[in-house]
């Protein structure tokens, strides 16, 4: 019971810290936001901050990891087409528009790219390539795909995410199909 309570408290603390950071990022440059400021805004102690994070960027990385975990659960079918995987990507990230805008404003979008590459490396065990997928090729292929998704996402966000998730998927999935036949979860 204690572990469940501590886990729930920890989750609430992290959500409060993340929310405080996002609120502050809308008003101030990320470089000028202190841990004390985030802690006070979140209503937690600095010690609570340091129990969960080492540096401010860890808050963003933790949130990105949560985003990719949730996106991964959307993909958790036996087999999913490139189109549907791509549509779900845009559907899910549309819900993160304000977060992405904050990262753009703070010049921290490289964190999205880094987490995207890590996510695709994990996902690669479920990917069936259309070409020879030697380990060397697979690494570069993942970097290529992650970079493409990242750049399209950033461009889409900068343009106000006007296009529908379906329209974005139509534009991207054909290119993706040149590299990935399908994703299969066994």
From TrEMBL:
Coiled-coil blocks: none
MF (Gene Ontology): DNA binding
DNA-binding region: 34-53
Keywords: DNA-binding
Pfam family, one: TetR_C_8
PROSITE patterns the UniProt entry points to: HTH_TETR_2
Residue ranges of domain HTH tetR-type in the record: 11-71
Superkingdom of origin: Bacteria
PANTHER family recorded: ACREF/ENVCD OPERON REPRESSOR-RELATED (PTHR43479), ACREF_ENVCD OPERON REPRESSOR-RELATED (PTHR43479:SF11)
Name recorded for this polypeptide: HTH tetR-type domain-containing protein
Taxonomic lineage from the root: Bacteria, Bacillati, Bacillota, Clostridia, Eubacteriales
């Amino acid at each position: 019971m204690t572990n469940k309570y501590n886990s729930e408290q920890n989750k609430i603390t992290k959500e409060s810290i993340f929310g405080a950071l996002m609120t502050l990022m809308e008003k101030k440059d990320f470089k000028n936001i202190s841990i004390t400021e985030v802690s006070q805004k979140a209503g937690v102690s600095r010690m609570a901050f340091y129990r969960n994070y080492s540096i401010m960027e860890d808050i963003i990385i933790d949130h990105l990891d949560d985003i990719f975990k949730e996106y991964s659960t959307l993909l958790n079918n036996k087999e999913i087409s490139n189109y549907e995987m791509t549509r779900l990507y845009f559907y899910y990230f549309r819900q993160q528009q304000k977060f992405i805008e904050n990262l753009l404003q703070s010049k921290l979008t490289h964190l999205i790219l880094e987490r995207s590459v890590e996510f695709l490396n994990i996902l690669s065990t479920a990917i069936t390539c259309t070409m020879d997928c030697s380990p060397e090729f697979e690494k570069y292929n993942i970097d290529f795909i992650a970079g493409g998704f990242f750049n399209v996402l950033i461009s889409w966000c900068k343009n106000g995410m006007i296009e529908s998730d379906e329209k974005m998927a139509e534009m991207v999935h054909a290119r993706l199909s040149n590299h990935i036949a399908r994703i299969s979860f066994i």
